[in-house]
TrEMBL record:
Residues 391-659 form the Fe/B12 periplasmic-binding domain. It is found in: Cell envelope. PANTHER family: IRON III DICITRATE-BINDING PERIPLASMIC PROTEIN (PTHR30532), IRON(3+)-HYDROXAMATE-BINDING PROTEIN FHUD (PTHR30532:SF26). Residues 176-274 form the HTH araC/xylS-type domain. This is Iron complex transport system substrate-binding protein. It comes from Paenibacillus peoriae. InterPro entries: ABC_transptr_periplasmic_BD (IPR002491), Bact_iron-sidero_bind (IPR051313), Homeodomain-like_sf (IPR009057), HTH_AraC (IPR018060), HTH_AraC-typ_CS (IPR018062). Residues 346-368 are annotated as: Disordered. Pfam families: HTH_18, Peripla_BP_2. PROSITE patterns: FE_B12_PBP, HTH_ARAC_FAMILY_1, HTH_ARAC_FAMILY_2. Belongs to the bacterial solute-binding protein 8 family. Its main location: other. Keywords: DNA-binding, Signal, Transcription, Transcription regulation, Transport.
Length: 660
């Protein structure tokens, strides 16, 4: 945001100081997930701590300043005794205001922006903050007036230093904040207006952003969260519908039932009965030795999305397509047997009759086997799904490269799949792709999907699965699991299991692993014993450090296939990446650094900073830039077999070029 715009907005708002606190946190003490009730400045006086503001991590030392907007989550872990001031304030646009001022506030809103920096001249700020807190404590009317004046002086001094030092505030991720707020407060009465008010934005602006990212409205998402929680309570407790309604944010059982049926397709009572019946039937059908362990199921930890063993029971209509085909074939088989029996000559010989019965029984068994051979059962996160044994018309919103490598040409895919970077580089015949239908973005166009009449649909986003199931048999196979992704080879194996092509998948994996072993020999010695490797992505003036496991953008190729050693930070990341601030970057960097996205416009500020230039890896020239931002992306965006082959070649050539 331009300084002049920032100042313009500060001049057009009414500022109310909500609170001023002087706090101290002892070494090792932690402040967890405090949701800011208003916009806030945090000014550290002494000590140091790790501070998380939403998804950004900052190392805060003496005289550091942080700013966050209303609704952001603040967490502090003191590594030494941390003494700080926190100033909570509210900025309201003064009325009447020009239209362009209101539009600028909605677009930029500096009072919600996030930034952290160490001012070059901290003492003038310290003097004002200390006096500000003293005046606030005295609580006299004249003191309150002085508080406003001091706060304005503090802001003036801070803005001057902020822009002199070239610090660019980060816009908050309003959608992530809205999702977090909804999931945290779903049990309370909530409307779009109250969510927008909590996040200091307009309802229209929030709705547009939410729709673009989540493909649904905030209120529809709220209803889904409430329905999911109600379903858990139905199955895990004996609470009444009224009790559950009050717990998940509905005034009465009637309102709950009406909303529940909208999202789950069943009334709460029927939902519970069907789930209990299904669970009881599974237990009855289970061998005695397995039943013993099923009874102990609750002692195990809940599986993540990575594990196929954890699944939800399928909705009633899920298997309809498969059952109809089987039933029709069985009817035809029975009719054939009856017609054959009627046309056969009468035989009173007991021996002959027994032989005929045996033949009929044998034919019936063979017919059933033939029917069963035409379908297969696949385990998914949403339950067992009966799929065609050899599907001919496959549609998928992800995984096109995986399908093609298995010899399966889909009839329709998501738009992006048809423009992936590997297509031009792999040499795959374009004429074979010409007949694949473009089905738009997430979710795939249901009308176009229906016209294609797919016999199998693969969906990678859970909220779209119900829609796809109305068109045809659908398998849910997530691409991302939270902020992590499964290993590329595991992904390929999972795709192959759906089609019974494990042999073909393992054949390619064996060849690929052999190629990776040869690549490791070529680059041996470039990363010396005891040295470590880091991978960072620079995008939109933000820094993301990729984890040793669960990362993307070439992380599996670098860490798993080439076996380059990650740092301890990368090894200990719980998710696939961490979003960090520039000041903590040295803690995350190894002896060699791979940088993805260096061509991004926002990368220059980071890659030309003094802190970056001072990194040992940068000084030694052990930095490897890769990845481009063309319309088609690059081979590191996806992790299908074609992309993985290209990734391996790219990284190896990059390292060998530095070796020379």
């Amino acid at each position: 945001m331009k300084l002049n715009d920032h100042i313009l907005l500060w001049n057009h708002v009414f500022i109310q100081v909500m609170d001023v606190r002087h706090k101290k946190i002892e070494e090792g003490e932690e402040l967890r997930t405090y949701r800011l009730p208003a916009s806030a400045f945090l000014y550290a006086v002494r000590g140091n701590a790790r501070v998380r503001l939403d998804n950004s991590i900052h190392r805060v030392e003496r005289f550091h300043v942080l700013h966050g907007g209303k609704g952001m989550c603040l967490s502090i872990l003191a590594e030494e005794v941390l003494e700080y001031y926190i100033i909570l304030y509210k900025a309201t646009l003064a009325l009447p205001s020009r239209k362009e001022i209101a539009q600028l506030l909605e677009k930029e809103n500096p009072f919600q922006n996030q930034y952290a920096f160490a001012p070059h001249y901290p003492l003038p700020l310290y003097d004002k903050v200390k006096l500000l807190e003293q005046e606030w404590r005295e609580a006299s009317r004249l003191g309150k007036l002085h508080v406003k004046a001091l706060f304005q002086q503090f802001v003036y001094e801070l803005l001057q230093q902020l822009y002199r030092q070239g610090i660019e505030p980060l816009k908050p991720d309003l959608v992530s904040q809205a999702v977090a707020y909804i999931r945290e407060h779903f049990s309370r009465p909530m409307a779009l207006e109250s969510i927008a008010e909590e996040l200091e934005c307009s309802t229209g602006h929030l709705s547009r952003l939410f729709k673009n990212k989540m493909h649904t409205s905030p209120i529809h998402y709220l209803g889904q969260v409430r329905a999911d929680r109600a379903a858990e309570l139905l199955m895990q407790t004996d609470a009444t519908l009224q009790e559950i309604a009050e717990r998940v944010g509905y005034p009465d059982a009637h309102s709950l039932s009406r909303s529940f049926k909208k999202y789950k397709g069943l009334s709460p009572v029927r939902f519970k009965k069907e789930r209990e019946h299904h669970a009881q039937k599974q237990d009855q059908d289970m061998p005695q030795t397995m039943l013993k362990y099923a009874l102990q199921r609750t002692s195990f930890a809940r599986y993540t999305d990575i594990d196929y063993q954890y699944r939800y029971n399928a909705e009633g209509d899920l298997f309809m397509h498969g059952r109809v085909k089987i039933t029709a074939m069985m009817i035809m088989l029975c009719l054939s047997l009856m017609l054959g029996a009627c046309s056969a000559p009468t035989n009173t010989n007991g021996s002959s009759q027994t032989k005929a019965n045996h033949t009929a029984t044998s034919s019936n068994s063979d017919g059933q086997a033939a029917v069963q051979a035409q379908t297969r059962t696949v385990k998914t996160l949403k339950g067992d799904v009966e799929v065609p044994a050899n599907p001919k018309r496959v549609a998928s919103d992800q995984y096109m490269g995986h399908l093609l490598k298995l010899g399966i040409i889909p009839v329709g895919v998501r738009s992006f799949m048809l423009n992936e970077a590997w297509i031009d580089q792999s040499g795959y015949p374009k004429e074979k792709l010409a007949g694949i239908k473009d089905l738009g973005e997430f979710p795939m166009d249901l009308e176009e999907l229906t016209v294609l009449q797919p016999d199998l649909i693969i969906g990678s986003i859970e909220k779209n699965i119900d829609s796809y199931q109305k068109v045809g048999t659908t398998v849910f196979l997530p691409y991302w699991e939270g902020e992590s992704t499964a290993g590329p080879l595991d992904k390929f194996r999972r795709i192959s299991e759906i089609f019974g092509k494990q042999k073909e998948a393992e054949q390619w994996i064996t060849e690929y692993e052999k190629k990776a072993a040869e690549a490791r020999t070529k680059i041996q010695g470039i990363v010396k014993n005891g040295e470590t490797v880091s991978i960072v992505q620079v995008a939109n003036k933000s820094i993301y450090v990729l984890a040793a496991k669960g990362g993307n953008y070439g992380s599996p190729t670098i860490y798993q296939m080439l076996k380059l050693p990650p740092t301890k930070k990368a090894l200990n990341m719980k998710e696939g990446f961490e979003n960090i601030s520039l000041e903590v970057l040295p803690e995350y960097m190894g002896d060699h650094i791979f940088v993805y996205g260096s061509e991004d416009e926002g990368a220059n500020q980071i890659l030309h900073s003094e802190l970056w230039k001072g990194l040992p890896a940068v000084k030694k020239g052990q930095v490897y830039m890769y990845g481009s931002f063309s319309d088609k992306g690059d081979e590191f965006v996806m992790e299908d077999p074609y992309s993985l082959e290209l990734q391996l070649d790219t990284i190896v050539n990059l390292l060998l070029a530095h070796k020379k």
